């Protein structure tokens, strides 16, 4: 009989949608920056190996490394760090945010602004 896996073990086997892979997220962040002309924001999710107590320092270090890798120091701002979700919000240059994905401690990066996926209500006449 096969052993039952924990939800955390199952999560490591889940396939990510192609629309949220690194290249797609980078493209989406660039589109948002071009559309608004303002800095973009994203949510950075860290791997389970990053402890909640060290999350703020780890996030700051990863941001600095990402800025250096694209040659754009000081272009990212660290927002709220959520230890319960093992995540942090960042805003700034889309290329620098995309460079965060190169860190071995980062699980994924998702844009904060995502187009609505729910159907729009249709105008109906009331009876």
Please tell me about this protein's structure.
This protein has a domain at 40-113: Peptidase S8 propeptide/proteinase inhibitor I9 (Alpha-Beta Plaits), CATH 3.30.70. 34% of the residues lie in helices and 20% in strands. Helix 2 (22-36) packs antiparallel against helix 4 (94-100) and helix 3 packs across helix 4 (94-100). By secondary structure, it is α+β, with helices and mostly antiparallel strands. It is globular and about 60 Å long. Strands 2-3-1-4 form a four-stranded antiparallel sheet, covered by helices on one side. The mean pLDDT is 82. It is built from four helices and four strands. It has helices spanning 7-11, 22-36, 55-70, 94-100; strands at 40-46, 76-82, 87-92, 106-111.
Which tags fit this structure?
127 residues; alpha+beta; Alpha-Beta Plaits; four-stranded antiparallel sheet; globular
Q: Radius of gyration, rounded? A: 18 Å
Q: Going by CATH, what is the homologous superfamily of the domain at 40-113?
A: Peptidase S8 propeptide/proteinase inhibitor I9
Structural class: alpha+beta
Number of helices: 4
Major beta sheet summary: 4 strands, antiparallel
Query: Which sequence of strands runs across the widest sheet?
Result: 2-3-1-4
What is the strand tally? 4
Mean pLDDT over the residues: 82
CATH class of the domain at 40-113: Alpha Beta
């Amino acid at each position: 009989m096969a052993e039952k896996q924990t939800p955390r073990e199952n999560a490591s086997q889940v396939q990510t949608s192609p629309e949220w892979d690194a290249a797609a997220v980078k493209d989406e962040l660039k589109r948002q920056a071009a559309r608004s002309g303002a800095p973009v924001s994203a949510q950075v999710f860290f791997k389970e190996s990053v402890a909640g107590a060290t999350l703020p320092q780890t996030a700051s270090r990863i941001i600095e490394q990402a800025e250096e890798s694209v040659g754009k120091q000081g272009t990212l701002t660290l927002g709220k760090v959520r230890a319960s979700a093992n995540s942090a919000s960042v805003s700034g240059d889309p290329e620098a945010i995309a460079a965060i994905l190169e860190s071995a401690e980062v699980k994924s990066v998702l844009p904060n602004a995502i187009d609505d996926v729910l159907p729009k209500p249709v105008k109906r006449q009331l009876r």
